[in-house]
Model the fold of this input.
Amino acid sequence: MTHFAGPHRWLAMVTWLLLAVACPSAQARSPAADALGHAAELRENGDFKGAAQTLTQALQAPGLSPAEQKELEFQRDVLNRIQHDYSLTKGELFQKLTASLKDGTRQEFEQWLAAGWFDGRNMDGQTYYVDTSISNLYFRHPELKSRRINAKDDGPEQKRLLEICRAIKEAARQDGGPYVLPHHFLCSMTVTASNGAAPAGAVLRAWLPIPRQYPFQNEFKLLASSAPDSELAPETSPIRSVYLEQRASSGQPTDFEITYSYSARGVCFNLKPEAIGRADLNDPALARFVAEAPHVVFTDKIRKLAREIIGSETNSMLQAKAFYDWIGGNIFYSFAREYSTLTNLSDYCLTHRYGDCGQEAMLFITLCRSQGIPARWQSGWNTFPGGKDIHDWTEIYLAPYGWVPVDPWAGIYAARYCTALSDAERRELHDFYFGGLDYYRMAANGDHSMTLDPPKKTMRSDDVDFQRGELEWEGGNIYFDKYSYKLDVQELK
Done:
């Protein structure tokens, strides 16, 4: 199936493209806006070559503004990004399935294809499938896990996570405050540009994520850097990075490496519905977090769902908890294609009823904001031993408590995938992550779709999130297929 099906989806995408090139009105549409709209239509009809030709011709037109040129170049690059994500032919997909699934048959494979169980799209006359299709099959259909060859037993991790959350909850009860059990970490992050990512001698520019200042996260120290003139973004930056420069060498990759330490605390708010007050939405610090934004759009579908979920409830905490519970019971986890190729993460997650941690977080944020509940993005890394990975979650503002963590992914994980726990334990774990957070986090971002400091001169590889680092050289952006990233984490006793 395609990801932009239906006339309403098409209208939303075209509107976004027109806004992206700062078109003041439909009557004053520029040739660049026309080209963007036409290219998008060709792309969604599977004509990638035609879309690329349309964008290339538009880029050769005289009088383009910098914003128009940047958007045309970005949308041309998006074509390559989509093709990179959709890399499997039908035959390759079947081979991967039979290598993963016990007693997999051609008949059930064809049935699953017909039912839309695999994300596929037509590109220039041939259907390709997203490269994470096999992993997503087991996420979206957990009943197949018993047939998975070499399936990982994460039961010990589930039980350990429950123990940690219980310890945080008890420590917060005894301490009388939400931030407890400080843990200290030593981290080394390496981002490696592959040989040939830029010509030898060219200056590569790199941004690597680092911990920002939070009530639950502090004591950051940059201990070492592969570049002597590293630049640190302010500790309260909504997209905190360390900036480095290095020249590419001939015939070998280019490494950017930093070592840092920081402290993180577990979080557990003792939230009481009767204590909830009204947030001052006239406060500029809160007003922006109840507004629409990229991927946070108050569509009719969002407003209708929000009303159905909350019913007659007026308490903002209980409304947010209802959204959290609904996501936990109605959304499946699924690896996502690159965010830069999607125009509305929250709509994607709601429409398909599955998504990754960031899409789930964006859906929760959008539902909350649609009802005047301040909500914002948090992201960086989940450093849980055995489960380390990039990760996104959220915060909501509840008076008088302030900013409170909510992790929609953790709620889904507890509700759907923690099969080693009892029903009561799964509910306990699910409920903890509404107002609670474990200390195995490295939070680099306090909002989404932010601008790096210093800004990139070229397009972003991920224009929503910032966890894997960003690279460029004077000739253009360096995309994810041309570099690797690694975070090593050591817990200091």
